[in-house]
Amino acid sequence: MDTTTDPRPFGATRVHDETQLRPPPVRASGALAWMRKNLFATPFDTIVTVVTVGILFWMVSGFLAWGISQANWLVVTRNFRLFMAGTFPIESMWRVELTALLCALGVGFSIYAYLRLPRWVPWVLIALAAMLVIVPPLLFAITPPAPSLLAAGDAAIASGTVTETPNRQLGFTGRAGETISLEMFTAPDDGVLAGAAGFSDRASAALINGSRAVLRAEARQVELENQLAGDFLTARQRTAAGDELGGLAIPESPLEAYGVNQQAVQIRLLNPDSGEVIAEGSVELGGAPFTAVLPYDGWYILDKSVDGGAVGLLRTTGIEPVIERGLTSGLVYTRVLDDFTVVQPRPKVDGKEIPYVSLTDNQWQGLRSFTQYLHIFAAPMLGMLARGLLPLMAVGVVGWGLGWGLGRIAPRPERERSNPRWAAQRALFPVWVVVLGLSSLLLVGLSGFGPVAVGSVLARFVWVGWMYFTGMAFDRAWGKPLFGLLIIMALFQSLVEGGVLTGRLGGDLTSLIINFIFWLAIGGYAARRGAASRGLLSTRRQVWAILICAGLWLALLLIPLLTGTSGEPLPAIDTRRWGGLLLTAVITVVALVASFPIGILLALGRRSSLPLVRGVCTAYIELVRGVPLITVLFMAMLLVPLLNPALASVENAFRAIVGFTLFSAAYLAENVRGGLQSVPPEQEEAGRALGLSGWQIIMLITLPQALRAVIPALVGQCISLFKDTSLVALVGLTDLTGISKGVISQAEYVGLQTEVYVFISVIYFIFSYAMAYVSRRIEASGSGKARRL
Amino acid sequence: MTSEAATSEPIIVCKDVSKWFGDFQVLRDVSVTVQPKEVVVIIGPSGSGKSTFIRCINRLEEHQEGEIIIDDIVMDHNVRNITAIRREIGMVFQSFNLFPHLTVIQNIMLAPMNVRRWPRERAEAKARELLTRVGIPEQADKYPGQLSGGQQQRVAIARALAMEPKIMLFDEPTSALDPEMIKEVLDVMKELARSGMTMLVVTHEMGFASEVADRVLFFDQGRIVEEGKPDVIFEKPQHPRTQLFLSQIL
Ligand SMILES: Nc1ncnc2c1ncn2[C@@H]1O[C@H](COP(=O)(O)OP(=O)(O)OP(=O)(O)O)[C@@H](O)[C@H]1O
Ligand SMILES: [Mg+2]
Questions:
Q1: Chain B interface includes A788 (CB < 8 A)
Q2: What is the pTM of this model?
Q3: Does the distance separating the beta carbons of B100 and A705 come in below 8 Å?
Q4: What is the pLDDT of residues A52-111, one digit of tens each?
Q5: 3 state DSSP class of A325
Q6: What's the CA-to-centroid distance between B48 and ligand 1, angstroms?
Q7: Most exposed of A227, A390, A739, B34 (fewest Cβ within 10 Å)?
Q8: What are the tens digits of pLDDT across the range A353-369?
Q9: Could you give the CA distance from residue A739 to residue A756 in angstroms, rounded to a whole number?
Q10: How far apart are CA A162 and CA A203, in angstroms?
């Protein structure tokens, strides 16, 4: 080794030259480089990549093929309301919709307050909205209409053990200006007939099945002959195959048995009310199709007959399945693909209701092509999504804008100059209290809840604002007397509310006191917040705000009371009518909100120095954690009424909520306890050295750090609680999972559980993923990060 | 500082304070009297009970025998007395112990607002004043995790001062710091001493001790072995333990 190049002796001080700063070396970028680096770096990587892609493709393609050509998504699109809200009374559905909109408003507001959205979000939203508006009708229009197969003739077509005779007269609904067209279904052989695709009435389904049976038998025959021709069968197998082949009877082809399409079909289109013939004609094999333009909206009768005993198989467009639903106003008939609804009763002939193109009797037969899939499912489903999502998106944007506007107009203290979201962040909690409060009011309803009560509730919120501004002015001479006056007013209002609910002033004393204390607590909190943000408003503005609140309060409370207006805008809803996603969400939200304080108290109790408290909390936590959730639910359902007969009147949904709350609180307590343990004891010591009390140390120092440390665990718990709500299906509630059983027990959708479970899985996934995403953002944004030293 | 202080009423009186951890006696009949505005530095080998002693003064540890009287309040099991005493005493820890979930200014405002019930404006004004005093007014809205060790310790000092204590306890405030940060913290402490704060400081910074201390206590095995003016202790230690300790450390 050459050591002479450096003449300085070993150990001498060296001064390094200032080396030039250089930009980093240019690295290959772009998709290809990324792929080379991440997918095909080594031969092994390449193999793994190829195999993974292959498996993915294999699985997804199978699923796609099923979803497009076989699955019957009508069960999803036609039952959307059931999935969303269960059997919630239709005339009150606006309350569910309003609740959803309120929540969207809150979500938009929260997003403004805390999530920094990437720049592309508005564009994606606009693109999505435009797509939802334009695509469904466009898709529906450009794809060919769905064919229906209708049989005609007098023959009884055997299908298995039953026979089906084509309907001579068939009722269907149509819209003025629509064209119906009928032609012979060209079936030269059984292969074509067996592969027929379309909504088929029972008789044509019987024909198709007949052809399929022929094909099956022929295939089996060929298979057996091939086996016998080969030499890989044992002697015994050979005799068995020979016997089977001998006994194999190829059924007669329905094409020949019933003389399908050998005779012309006579067609008449009738107006059921007047009996007048709208159009008349006949179709025969190879002939021109029969077309007619419908003159009015409503019912039509298609009369089709074939001379002699022959059968005609018609391929039609414009005659689509209809489902019948009973509403309080009577039966309505809705066309499944485009929701065209007819309210006139089904036509009668000779006093008997005639058969109609019900979805039950006209199920889809055969495989669907992609364009048919688009026309029958994709377009209606997108349209349905658009109807649901567009208002939610719009209101979410409004909520976002509210947060933005609040940031513009609300004054903010000097130290928050740089944070335009400050006002929205402070308002977030009150906003959610209002949203959840109004939502529960909407969903539960209140009997006797007339304008007086509505005014009273609104007046309460005004009163809370009033308390806030009074808190701001607390240090003035009139601040304290005003505060006292406000408390008397709250008591007065409690008396009025008690009177409204029970019909006599004051009502029942306990609920009066609870009501009063509840609002006093909220008002007190508002006043404290007000006191804390003193100086935000000038004195003049404070006085104005107080006066406005006072005026509003009086107006809201007194005007309905004095004018004596009555009526029930929000009648109570039987909670047994809650169902679907609504019930799932209600259980999740209420149980989460309720279990939070309980869980925190349990966690603190378990660390308490008082042995009794510690013992009780530990015993409770361990007891609940040692029992499966489903057991807790059954106990909540069955045992609760036994504990105390008074509890028997508690409705099932609430019992389930109680069960979930108690269960979730125990797990939450353990998570929080873990968080508390992760806070170093020095933190508590520092708090004690500053003179903070034990309770203050917990609330101000340990608990905030503990909760931040366990945010991921808490969100995980929220997600599992959300998914676990599906267990209430087992105790007879109709949540998203429970309602599925009801959906597939309908005559039209028997046996479609796969579609239903795929759909509800997607819904569960979307919400769980949204929660997980938000939690990741919270962690990443640092507002949830425990900033360790 | 000492001449007038010596004549006034003592602010800390410890009489025969003893403490055990299990069977192990950590403090043995420690008796100290501190006058207002006096700066007392406590030195001694590791494990000699220095920390335990000053933690007894604000009841982070409980002494078992003897008497501690702070500003005429007797330290006993009465929670009110303990709270009253803690309000009068600020403490600075070796490991800063700032609250990581609060910004610097929130750290400082927390105790005045919640213990003294000051309104926000007053607490904030006080906090900003203190941050200027410890030389980092521009860090007010950062989180402790974003500051250097020296800055964190200065925030901790400001946090203790925000309660306007009469006494400040320091437990090795510079031992967790890099050399270049030690100076900035010591400067703050010197300024504090000059302003007339009563201070009890556990430290190994002999320069600091000789510059500002009125008295040095040498602890060994839970006892005060020697005490006196810093120049006397450092130049002519009497007790062999002190001599040995100083010869090792200087
Ligand atoms: N919580 C405790 N439980 C049991 N023993 C303890 C406890 N705290 C301290 N000790 C012991 O008490 C003795 C004195 O500890 P102390 O922390 O007061 O020493 P110190 O003089 O501050 O030492 P150092 O210079 O290392 O900080 C040591 O022997 C220590 O091991
Ligand atoms: Mg120590």
A1: yes
A2: 0.80
A3: yes
A4: 999 999 989 989 999 888 888 989 988 888 999 988 888 889 999 999 999 999 999 999
A5: strand
A6: 7
A7: A390
A8: 889 999 888 988 888 89
A9: 10
A10: 11
